[in-house]
């Protein structure tokens, strides 16, 4: 992609603060969490190790990791008033709205009364968000009140076990685990920045996360993985996909899952999730979604020098695991809550209220006109 003109729109290219949590390279490499390269984390770590890293700045040793996983498991249960509330939300609600409401209700039932509780609240949200989502999902879609306190000791395995009502395969568990690692943290993206702005007013953790969920929901940010699925599932062949996407480009439509505010050549998370999509597609005998996705990727590069971001191949990978499309962005929440809450803690540790200036482009001062004279 050509070098961008940075005219200040969208705060692009301007530093809005500092962080020790993550840095984002621009050319498709250099994405690190606390100094660890994303591809090494995706190869070797578990999501719980990554969450621990973000909260503590260092990887856990074996006993710290098993202690942390045990601790997160204790946070999977939901209080009865929250279940009652989730049961009122209709099946056609967007699950992102369910997570936003669930987080907010939890903030009423288990309020953060002091910043000394911030790690507990962060861990509680990590444990509870998959339960909130899937308790509502099963109740609203088939009237079933699922037990959220059973299952695998990884968040990925627990999520898939709750969703499908059976233990996941090792391959699916690992794919979701890797996906949670890829989605965990990304510096000053829109939803994290939302959380930090809220934190800068010394607000509570649930408010910061509730706002962040709202920001992630949009199709220009996390919502792109669902929009990418909506695109690729329309096609029954590569040729049909190419024709349609070419037409979209002529009409200057946005192709969801492509482009990035910071990366210029590629998104380093794409190659990782793409490999998983290929592997899972082969396992289910897919002849369409993966080839269609790959053809769109090539076309977008050839025609526009636009590359897949983290979201595009997540669509097919999640689909191959039998995950309903409307749960795609909520899974992003279940992961990114680690980054959001780590950023809230970092903001609080060295806080100044975030309040930029605006360039005024409105009317010059003018005199008041009485109602009768307008
Ligand atoms: C996990 C994540 O949140 S990753 C992002 C997920 N979002 C998406 O996939 C949505 C689709 N992508 C986009 O809308 C954009 O690429 C964004 C929001 C990610 C970044 O926005 P910006 O930084 O403003 O984009 P950028 O300045 O690089 O755009 C350059 C040009 O490419 C075009 N462009 C950028 N992305 C796309 C796209 N996906 N499809 C078609 N054209 C695009 C822009 O319209 C712009 O064209 P113009 O110069 O004629 O106006
Ligand atoms: O950094 C961004 O602007 C968006 C993104 O990729 C993310 O939040 O993971």
Give structural attributes.
56% helix, 3-stranded antiparallel β-sheet, acyltransferase, 16 helices, mainly alpha, transferase, 374 residues, binds acetyl coenzyme *A, Citrate_synthase, binds oxaloacetate ion
What is the distance, rounded to the nearest whole angstrom, between the alpha carbons of the first and last residues?
51 Å
The helix count comes to 16
Sketch the major β-sheet.
3 strands, antiparallel
Radius of gyration: 22 Å
Helix content: 55-70%
The coarse silhouette is: globular
Give the spatial strand order of the biggest sheet.
1-2-3
Low-pLDDT stretches: none
Number of beta strands:
3
- Output mean pLDDT: 96
Sequence of secondary-structure elements? EEEHHHHHHHHHHHHHHHH
Name the structural class: mainly alpha
Listed once per kind, the bound small molecules are:
acetyl coenzyme *A, oxaloacetate ion
Could you tell me the strand content as a percent range?
Answer: under 5%
Organism: Endozoicomonas euniceicola
GO molecular function: 2-methylcitrate synthase activity; citrate synthase activity
Pfam families: Citrate_synt
Family: Belongs to the citrate synthase family.
